[in-house]
Prior knowledge:
Low-confidence stretches: none
Radius of gyration: 26 Å
Shape: rod-shaped
Number of strands: 0
Mean pLDDT: 83
Amino acid sequence: xxxxxxxxxxxxxxxxxxxxxxxxxxQAGFVSVIVGAGAGFFGIYVNGKPTTHTVEQSRPTNDxxxxxx
Length: 69
């Protein structure tokens, strides 16, 4: 959800900035902060969920194993 909200804020900020006739340095700095915040939100998104891995243990095979197929 946070990525979706960031996407909306990014879109609105971008369209606002591009519609300005003569943007100032302060306005460009504001856009830079919004874009830079995206890296933080993406980092939270990527590292926020624990990843679970399952490891199958194989047993040694020998000639006495019976194939149950």
